[in-house]
Amino acid sequence: MSEQEQERDQKVEVIVFSSDESITPRQIRQILEEEPSLADIEACIDRLNASYEAGGRSFRIVRVAGGFRFLTIPSLEPVVRKMLAPKIQRRLSQSALEVLAVIAYQQPVTRGEIQRVRGVSPDYAVNKLLERGLIDVRGRADTPGKPLLYGTTKEFLDFFNLNSLKELPRLREIKELVRDEEVREYLASSEASVDNGDNLQ
C-alpha cells in the first residue's frame, strides 16, 4: 500500500467513524480535499474491512441506507442488542413499531389502511413517527377525500441498519424473531411504557 493510499484510508475511516448516521460516498468525496473517485473510496472501504478482519476486530464498515457506517459483526449482535435494549425501548414502543411495520411493508399507505390492519387508530403513532423522521408523506391517494400516503425514509433505513427496503426481513423471519425470548420480553416491557417525551407510542 502506498503512503497516499494509507493516508486516504485513514481519512475515510475517521469520516465514517465520526458520522452519527450513514454517510454516502459522494459526501465522503466532498469532505476530502483531493476528491478521489467513487471507486477509490470503495477501494478504501475494502482495504479497511480487510484489515479489520485480519486483526480480528469486532466491527466492519457496512453499506447502510445508501452510505457507510460502522456496525458490529453479526456474531456479536446479541451482546449489543442486550446492551441497547433499554435505549431502543425508550425510542420506539410496541404500537409505534407495529404502525411502522405496516407502513414499511405496504407503503405507500394511508392512515385508514393502517387502521384496518391494526384495528385501532394509528394517529398518535403516525404523528410521532413523522416527528422522528422515520416516515414522510408520499402524496395523496386517488380515493375519496384524497387521504395522505405515508412511506419510510432514509432515516428509517439508517435506524434499522438497512441498505434498502429489499433487506426487510420476510414475514416468516419476523415470526421466528418474535419467538425469541428476549424479543418477547422487550415487546412486553415496551407495551407498558409511558410516554415521557422520549417514547413513541
What does this structure look like?
The chain has 201 residues and is mainly alpha-helical. The protein has two domains: 70 residues, Winged helix-like DNA-binding domain superfamily/Winged helix DNA-binding domain (Arc Repressor Mutant, subunit A, Orthogonal Bundle); 115 residues, Winged helix-like DNA-binding domain superfamily/Winged helix DNA-binding domain (Arc Repressor Mutant, subunit A). The chain is 55% helix and 11% strand. The strands form two sheets. Strands 1-2 form a two-stranded antiparallel sheet. Strands 3-4 form a two-stranded antiparallel sheet. Helix 1 crosses helix 3 and helix 4 runs parallel beside helix 10. The chain is elongated. The protein starts with a helix and ends in a 10-residue tail after the last helix.
Give me the secondary-structure topology:
Elements: H1 3-18, H2 25-31, H3 38-54, E1 59-64, E2 67-72, H4 77-91, H5 94-106, H6 111-118, H7 123-132, E3 135-140, E4 148-152, H8 154-159, H9 171-178, H10 181-191
Antiparallel strand pairs: 1-2, 3-4
Helix pairs in contact: 1-3, 4-10, 5-7
